[in-house]
Design a protein that fits this description.
By secondary structure, the protein is α/β, with parallel strands linked by helices. The chain has three domains: 151 residues, GTP1/OBG domain (Spo0b-associated Gtp-binding Protein, Chain: A, Distorted Sandwich), CATH 2.70.210; 167 residues, Rossmann fold (3-Layer(aba) Sandwich); 66 residues, GTP-binding protein OBG, C-terminal domain (GMP Synthetase, Chain A, domain 3), CATH 3.30.300. Helix content is 20%, strand content 23%. The chain is built from eight helices and 18 strands. The strands form four sheets. Strands 10-11-9-12-13-14 form a six-stranded mixed sheet, with helices on both faces. A five-stranded mixed sheet has the order 3-1-8-5-6. A hairpin with a 2-residue loop joins β17 and β18.
Length: 415
């Protein structure tokens, strides 16, 4: 089963809790705090794997969770870090954020990685909170929850040559003759229901990868047929091979239809190099039409996917064209990096009170045990040092007003 789209949710492992502990040893009075830190939660990584050809594995496994970090313990023992979880995807996978559709990664090369969800930070033990005025801190941090993100995965096959043609133009027959691929072949339209990939072996150990997609018909951009749904699989190809049936009553109109549908799908196809091959030369009536059709195409090849006639010459020409493109350095437009100032926190009025946003303060709130009076007092001291309490006062906050930080609701106390 071929799957080229999948929705996936990833949750990084939660960090381990810090430990609240004190050293207890004979003849050593007041040993002091010795609580260890919690371990970091495991990350979720997307890794490109050349052995995979479909998103089938992740299609049936929607939610991936990272391993949690171990809790700290006494004697300053650090909790173990959670193991990372590897999600293997085929080369050519595009990763988008589910909410916005923004592309965040394009995994093209084998072994290429993308950090999909970061594991939570481990909480600090009470050792870190000892000061000259508080030598016996009776609190520790909780572990931070891991990131929770949803992604849309979209597979775009990586091939040298993309086959383009109407249904029953003989693309699957051509692919079967030129490569070891075995696509379904039948005498009716839309036999090919999903993309096929094949590798042609040439002399001197040269290879050429070809991608075949379902036939394209007029109106495909409006949802007709199947070809437009899979056109993204030939977006990465270096060269397009147009297969035209010699028995087509109007091959020039066919060419215009194919080029128009390609342009509607993506502007990148307008500049993509192309080669034309007139197929089904094994039919005598078709062969007689070759000279009349030739002027409508740029140096077309006469081939027969069924008998293999003309295929060696065509494949050699395709390889030479692709080889030139491979050696031509691509012009990379390096976008200018924008430096945007981000304040340490933002404060705004909301229904029922005030809402505080900011990575630092949200992380601190998530890692605070508000059931512990000392931990809550320590968090309020952080609010005061960051200037948040003054900002609330300037905005007219009154004692008892609700203050929201992430999913946590607190009560404003100016003292």
């Amino acid at each position: 089963m071929f799957v080229d789209r999948a929705r996936i949710r990833v949750t990084g492992g939660a960090g381990g809790n810090g430990c609240c502990s004190f050293r207890r040893e004979k003849y050593v009075p007041r040993g002091g705090p010795d609580g260890g830190d919690g371990g970091k939660g495991g990350d979720i990584l997307f890794v490109a794997d050349k052995e995979l050809t479909s998103l089938l594995d992740v299609h049936y496994h929607y939610h991936w969770k990272g391993k949690p970090g171990g809790h700290g313990s006494g004697n300053n023992r650090h909790g173990r870090n959670g193991e990372d979880v590897i999600v293997r995807v085929p080369c050519g996978t595009v990763v988008r954020k589910a909410e916005t559709g923004e592309i965040v990664a394009d995994l093209v090369q084998d072994g290429q990685q993308f950090l999909a969800a970061r594991g939570g930070k481990g909480g600090m033990g009470n050792t870190h909170f000892a000061t000259s005025t508080n030598r016996v801190p009776r609190f520790a941090e909780k572990g931070e929850p891991g990131e929770d993100v949803e992604y849309l995965l979209e597979l775009k096959l990586i091939a040298d040559v993309g086959l383009v043609g109407l249904p029953n133009a003989g693309k699957s027959t051509f692919l079967a003759s030129a490569t070891a691929a075995r696509p379904k072949i039948a005498p009716y339209p839309f036999t090919t229901l999903s993309p096929n990939l094949g590798v042609a072996l040439l002399s001197d150990h040269r290879t050429l990868t070809l991608a075949d997609i379902p036939g394209i018909i007029e109106g495909a951009s409006e949802g007709k047929g199947l070809g437009h749904e899979f056109l993204r699989h030939i977006e990465r190809t270096r060269l397009l091979l147009f297969l035209i049936d010699l028995g087509d009553p109007d091959p020039l109109t066919t060419r215009r239809i194919l080029e128009a549908e390609l342009a509607k799908h993506s502007p990148i196809f307008q500049t993509r190099p192309r080669v034309f091959a007139l197929n089904k030369a094994d039919v005598p009536e078709n062969r007689l039409r070759f000279d009349a059709i030739r002027p409508f195409f740029e140096e077309p090849f006469l081939i027969s996917g069924l008998t293999g006639e003309g295929l060696p010459e065509l494949l050699e020409h395709l390889w030479q064209r692709v080889d030139v493109i491979r050696k031509t350095p691509e012009k990379e437009s390096v976008p200018e990096k924008e430096y945007v100032y981000e304040p340490p926190f933002t404060l705004e009025r909301c229904a029922g009170g005030f809402r505080i946003r900011g990575e630092t303060i949200v992380r601190a709130a998530r890692m605070t045990d508000f059931n512990n009076e000392e931990a809550a007092a320590h968090f309020q001291m952080r609010l005061r040092k960051m200037g948040i309490l003054k900002a609330l006062k300037r905005m007219g906050a009154q004692e008892g007003d609700s203050v929201f930080i992430d999913t946590i609701e607190l009560e404003y106390d100016p003292d």
